[in-house]
Every structure is written in structure tokens, then in C-alpha cells.
Amino acid sequence: MATMNISLPQALKDWVEAQADAGLYANASDYVRDLIRRDVEKREKTEALRVMVQEAEQSGFVTMTPEELYERVRKTYRPDK
């Protein structure tokens, strides 16, 4: 695993160490890695949503009512409800 040194203001350093001390993470590095993983996931989801919106805008207009569209989406993604 590669090593990276970062500088933090004292308040942030204390926060990171407190998360590890609370037993939520094994150490400060685990906490920072988790934050980075979450940021990567968030950015990937945001990009996927942006692509979906762009595709939707390019696909033209629908003739369904909002209720019909909602029901179609609900059946597609939550068929058990």
C-alpha cells in the first residue's frame, strides 16, 4: 500500500483521531480511507445520475402522465410493492 502524508489543522486532526479512539475505525488511516471511498462512490453515483438526466433530455418527450411514469418506475425498481 502506498503512503501519503497530509497536513490537517489541529481541530481536524483531533476529529480524525477521535473517530479511531471511539472504536469506529482501527486507526486514523482507516477513517480517511473510508471517507475517500465514500467520496468516490458519491461521485460515481452523481455522474451516473448526470448521464441519466442527459440521456433523458435527449430522448424527447413522453406522453405518460406523471402518475403513470411513477407507477412504471415503481414496478421496475420495486416490483414487490
Q: What does this protein structure show overall?
A:
The chain has 81 residues and is mainly alpha-helical. The protein has one domain (10-77). The chain is 69% helix and 0% strand. The chain contains three helices and no strands. It has helices at residues 10-21, 28-59, 66-77. The longest helix has 32 residues, at 28-59. The radius of gyration is 21 Å and the shape is elongated. The mean pLDDT is 92.
| Rg value | 21 Å
Give the number of helices. 3
Q: Helical percent range? A: 55-70%
User: What is the succession of H and E elements?
Assistant: HHH
> What is the structural class?
mainly alpha
What is the tally of beta strands? 0
Which segments are poorly predicted (pLDDT under 50) over 5 or more consecutive residues?
none
**Tally of distinct domains:** 1
- Average per-residue pLDDT, rounded, comes to 92
The shape, in one word, is: elongated
Portion of residues in beta strands equals under 5%
Beginning-to-end CA distance, first to last residue = 45 Å
Largest beta sheet, briefly? none
Give a quick rundown of the structure.
By secondary structure, this protein is mostly helical. It has three helices and no strands.
Entry keywords:
81 residues, mainly alpha
Topology:
Layout: H1 10-21, H2 28-59, H3 66-77
Helix pairs in contact: 1-2
